[in-house]
Design brief:
Oligomer: heterodimer
Number of domains of chain A: 1
Radius of gyration of chain A: 11 Å
Strand content of chain B: 5-15%
Shape of chain B: elongated
Number of strands of chain B: 5
Largest interface: A-B, 16 and 14 residues
Radius of gyration of chain B: 27 Å
Largest sheet of chain A: 4 strands, mixed
CATH topology of chain A: Translation Initiation Factor IF3
Strand content of chain A: 25-35%
Order of helices and strands of chain B: HEHEHHHHEHEHE
Shape of chain A: globular
CATH topology of the domain at 47-93 and 132-208 in chain B: Hypothetical Protein Ychn, Chain: A
Order of helices and strands of chain A: EHEHEE
Structural class of chain A: alpha+beta
Helix content of chain B: 40-55%
Number of helices of chain A: 2
CATH class of the domain at 47-93 and 132-208 in chain B: Alpha Beta
Distance between the termini of chain A: 18 Å
CATH architecture of chain A: 2-Layer Sandwich
Strand order of the largest sheet of chain B: 4-3-2-1-5
Amino acid sequence: MEANQTLDARGLNCPLPILRTKKALNTLKSGDTLKMVSTDPGSLKDIAAFCKQTGNALLSSQQSGKDFEFFIRKV
Amino acid sequence: MNIAKLQPAHSQTLDVPSDIASLEAWFDQRFEEKLAEREAAKTPSLAIIATKGTMDMAYPPFILASTAAALGWDTSIFFTFYGLELLKKDLQLKVSPLGNPAMPMKMPFGPDWLQRINVPVPNLIASNLPGFENFATTMLEQTAKSKGVASIKELRDACIEVDVKLVACQMTVGLFNYDQDEFIPEIAEWVGASTYLAAAQKSSICLFI
């Protein structure tokens, strides 16, 4: 999947991945896609909850090795 | 009784049932739908009252507030009593295992097995050993850093960035002989209990920390 921007939030813990994601989304246009990579296991559920609350679309979330990868389309 | 005859002819074109029992059922359903619509359209809000001035107790208000604001919620924190320490320009937060029996004392560095060990600290040592509080504070700072947990300063900056409203207690300043210049300029207002309670009354969640 292609992303307009990639955010590396590896090594960061709650709530930093969410805060950085929010910040990165602010710089994008509506319809743009953000790829976010984190290592915090909590972000699997937290990013889903964040997207549900903010209306942004969580296109995919998957684990690859120790990393969690998310694709989010800005609302 | 059938009330269809009492209604003007044009109402028949609406999707409104004609007998009272189904009219009531229809109304109840519409009412529920409207309530749910209204609930969904409402911006949630979080009001936190922060009363503690130690490093461990500084985390919950700043983490919850910055996250809530990132979710698009209206968020405010009212800092009162020792909580005002969290708004000082120069943060001097400390933590102590003394009187804090659930606080684990862990090594912030070294191999995994060493970091897992909880070092029990008797109150006799925690209270009498000079500099122990500073030591415990450094340990927590280091542990947070190595685990990728933000510092209090970073979390406070994050709160300011996402427009968390920081409200300070006017009375505490007088009580502890503080000077307003000691505090960060981002404080939205200095108020008393009645002002903050009025704001908190309308919040979806209110927490006392």
